[in-house]
């Protein structure tokens, strides 16, 4: 081979390499392509093909069967988990519905108990009203004081049964802002800022003030 023929052959090989690189995808920079890496990839693919070709068909078949069985098992497990999830979601919805129904029943029961308690109180107060009405039916000249006092005691008994207590402070006691309402400051014989007189008693029920006692307070001289 002459020197000219060798140069042409080398030029042809270089041109072929250049053509392969230039035909690379648009997003691949031809300058970054390593032809040795390409050759190694082709060699690896070839080795894989040769290894599969050299494998025992029965062994390959067993491996494929094992893979299929494993895939079927995993699919079955997924279906089971889906079923369990759906069952749990259904149970949760039922529990939520039961809880809402329970709350409604408790609310209704409390309302019924409150209504019955109110009815019982009104029934006992009606007896007091009847006694007052009978007292007013007496002759104008009749002394009804005893009857009124008896009726008042009856009303106090009704209130006491409901745990209602009278707030009736004595003159000279200190003022309790949570239980006493000061109407005015007046001159009195009591110490300054002490209760001088009670204008109207108050009431509390189960340690809750229903109505403050109205009082006057001794002013400083």
Automatic annotation (TrEMBL):
Region of interest (Disordered), ranges: 1-57
Domain of life per record: Archaea
Biased composition (Acidic residues): 1-47
Matches recorded under Pfam families: GrpE
InterPro entries the record matches: GrpE, GrpE_CC, GrpE_head
GO molecular function, one term: adenyl-nucleotide exchange factor activity
Gene Ontology CC terms: cytoplasm
GO biological process, alphabetically ordered: protein folding
Gene3D superfamilies the UniProt entry points to: 3.90.20.20, Head domain of nucleotide exchange factor GrpE
Residue ranges that the Swiss-Prot or TrEMBL entry lists as coiled coil: 64-112
Subunit: Homodimer.
Name of the protein: Protein GrpE
Organism: Haloarcula limicola
Lineage, highest ranks first: Archaea, Methanobacteriati, Methanobacteriota, Stenosarchaea group, Halobacteria
């Amino acid at each position: 081979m002459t020197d000219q023929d060798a140069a042409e052959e080398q030029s042809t090989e270089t041109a072929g390499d250049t053509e392969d690189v230039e035909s690379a995808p648009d997003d691949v920079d031809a300058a970054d392509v390593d032809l040795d890496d390409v050759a190694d990839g082709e060699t690896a693919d070839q080795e894989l093909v040769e290894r599969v070709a050299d494998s025992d068909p029965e062994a390959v078949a067993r491996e494929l069967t094992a893979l299929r069985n494993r895939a079927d098992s995993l699919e079955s497990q997924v279906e089971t988990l889906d079923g369990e999830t759906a069952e749990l979601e259904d149970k949760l919805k039922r529990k939520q519905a039961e809880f809402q129904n329970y709350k409604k029943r408790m609310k209704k029961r409390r309302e019924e108990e409150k209504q019955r308690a109110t009815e019982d109180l009104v029934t006992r107060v009606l007896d007091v009203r009847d006694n007052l009405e009978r007292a007013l039916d007496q002759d104008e000249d009749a002394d009804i004081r005893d009857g009124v006092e008896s009726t008042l005691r009856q009303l106090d008994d009704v209130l006491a049964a409901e745990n209602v207590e009278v707030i009736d402070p004595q003159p000279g006691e200190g003022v309790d802002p949570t239980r006493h309402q000061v109407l005015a400051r007046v001159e009195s014989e009591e110490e300054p800022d002490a209760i001088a007189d009670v204008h109207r008693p108050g009431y509390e029920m189960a340690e809750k003030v229903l109505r403050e006692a109205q009082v006057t307070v001794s002013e400083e001289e």
